[in-house]
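Cont'd.
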Amino acid sequence: MAQSSTMIIIDNLSFGYSDHKILSIPHFEVKESQHLMVLGSSGSGKTTLLHILGGLLAPKQGKVTIGETDIYSLSGSQRDKYRGQNIGLVFQKAHLISALSVQDNLLLAQYLAGMVQDKGRVKEVLSELGLGEKIKKSVRELSQGEQQRVTIARALLNRPRVILADEPTASLDDKNAQKVIQLLQSQAEQYKASLLIATHDQRVKDQFELQLNLATA
Amino acid sequence: MNLLSLSWNYIKARPLNMVLNMLLMGLGIAIILVLILLSSQLEDNLAKNKKGVDLVVGAKGSPLQLILANVYHIDFPTGNIKLQEAKDLTRNRLIASAIPLALGDNYRGYRIVGTNHDYVKLFDAAVDEGELWKNNLDAVVGSNVAQSLGLKVGDTFFGAHGLSVADMEHEEMSYRIVGILEENNSVIDKLILTNIESVWAVHDHDEEHHEEHSEPQLGSAYETGFPEGDEDAEITSMLIKFRSPMGAVTLPRMINADTNMQAASPAFETQRLFSLLGIGVDLLKAFAVIIIIIAGLSIFISLYNALKDRKYDLAIMRSLGASKTKLFFHVVLEGVIITVLGGLLGFLIGHGLTEFLAGLYEKSDEIGLTGLIFVKQELAVMLISVGIGIIASLIPAINAYKTDISEVLAKE
């Protein structure tokens, strides 16, 4: 396979992201290792698009191909598993399972994706994100920024081919926001993953060359 | 990390809730187990001891008392009947066999029973040491008696009048132990057996004051049948086995109407006893069932409320690759873990409480009550409690199954 083969293909996609508005994307491609900023004001359908790409929400019409797989031709549980193994998701708020420790949160991600539970790998990812010392901590003891970094670690853990981040900086201060974007970029590069960040955050929106503006799409 | 430890971590995160649910479940199960343990042991014991006895004939009085005194050896006898009258009755062709009993004395609280070897056969009891009685004043003791009083073959003792410890001793004539029975797990373990003439001799002696101690006298009818006695000779009762079921229809009525004796059926009287006790047992059982249902409800409510806060967690787990079915089982497992722990707690409390009650109640040793046995019904109770855990978590689990991940994740 070539260095920059196509990772995401959207074909003839249409979806309603609120009761009246319908957005359609006739064709769109994202290549391996490509970074894309999805822009648009709130309510423009950024989240909906990311959910469709992540296999969380079936579109009204159209085809979404991740890698070589048409994800909406899979059964529900096959799609869940495919998502767990190939797609890393980061959300606006750092949602971790608060009943579990940092390490168990990551082990859970391996378990639920049907991968081998590898504590070495967990440690490695956490160290890369500067969280090596927090491994045994309860997630309740972490700061907002640390929690968001743990969710990034969780998204990267299974070496995904696609990373989808939905407003990952919205609840962070300037310093942490920059840090998170840089982290996502460097990690995506390291794993040769396609990175899609949906945001309307003025602080970060101009950092990527490739942009998809939903207001004008 | 797996579903079990995931569910367990969620339970651990809310310890007070878990303890409350576990205690409720445990309490309900404990009460039911105590009732099951006590009534099954009681029924078992009552059934074992009345085996082979179709009818008990004794002096007039309460039929239940007659049964309790002569079959189970826990109540006092209703009185005596004339030996001659009893003998006459056994000639009835409906009677296959009759075993005479003469009660009235004890040795340190253990009843001395005058009878013949048929009584030992009735229980399928075997001799552990020595042999069965032959001569007058020979005694054979049950395993419990031998053990707790430290009696050996060759020992002698004085019987005491009456059936409880404090009564006066017959100090003139002593019994000699010729045999010890093997453990039989029945009432015979707690009896001292001899022939009927010995019981008579001990009593007659009080009045006559002879000294004919030295020569052992061979008893009459020690193996089977009735001893030779004078006109005034009396026995306490006889245990009758029918030749045909017809006996059950005609004999009791005939005896009760035409003689000075009373006939009572062990089967009928124990059933009557149980139906009297049964009302209390049923009430307690209903009470325990209500507690278990409340426990199930409490588990349902706490899971339901907890899952409202956990919608986001569930959506995240889905986004990490968990299938709908996995989340369903994750929630059900939580209910099951709580009920299984509650069940185990109830199991411990139930057996502990039964053992404690058995220790508290003096007579329990005579009936053979213990908290350290296990009956099949317990397994059923455990399975039912797990079933309740599953039912209680079903609605929350279905909600978890139906979580719309996209909607939940988009909300915040």
